[in-house]
Amino acid sequence: MKLQGGCFCGAVRYEAEAEPFNSTLCHCTDCRKTSGAPALAWFSVRRDELRWIGAEPRLFRSSAHALRGFCASCGASLAFLDEEWPDEIDIATASLDDPEQVPPRDHTFVHSRLSWMNLRDGLPEYRRTRTEG
Questions:
Q1: DSSP string spanning 66-79?
Q2: Which of 1, 19, 20, 121 reaches 20 to 30 Å from 97, CA-CA?
Q3: Residue 26: inside a domain, yes or no?
């Protein structure tokens, strides 16, 4: 699948010829705080399948083992890198030129979901991660 996207201002662009996996709507506090949204949709690709075009995202450490990437010009959230999964990179789904390409397949960190965020989409829900239940 050809995936293309980028930030709001266009300074950071990416493309991947990849099969996305782990598409989720994350409700964790960190995603909310870094995006300003009530939840953030992500999907994963192998890091070697993603190519940054133009500027690369600026990275900051958001937890002991995680880095988040954003556009240094417009501030758009773009990427999440977990050092425990070094071969993978998560991309903010809404940064795709066509976000409909990779719909969420589940909800993660629902223990942090805002009480007024009532989604009845029937997707699996995980209290934390898929492996932590």
A1: EEEEE-TTT--EEE
A2: 121
A3: yes
Cα dist. 25→18, 52, 72, 112, 117 in Å? 20, 23, 24, 12, 12
When divided into structural domains, the chain yields a total of 1
Q: What CATH number does residue 63 fall under?
A: 2.170.150.70
The stretches of the chain forming alpha helices (DSSP H) are: 29-35
| Contact yes or no for 22/108 (Cβ under 8 A) | no
Phi-psi region of 51 (alpha: psi -120 to 50; beta: other; left: phi over 0): beta
Residue 49 in domain: yes
Residue 126 lies in a domain: no
Alpha helices in 5-133 (DSSP H): 29-35
What count of other Cβ atoms lies within 10 Å of the Cβ of residue 118?
A: 7
Q: pLDDT tens digits, the chain, 133 residues: what are they?
A: 999 999 999 999 999 999 999 999 999 999 999 999 999 999 999 999 999 998 999 999 998 989 999 999 999 999 999 999 999 999 999 999 999 999 999 999 999 999 999 888 999 999 888 776 5
Does residue 32 fall inside a structural domain? yes
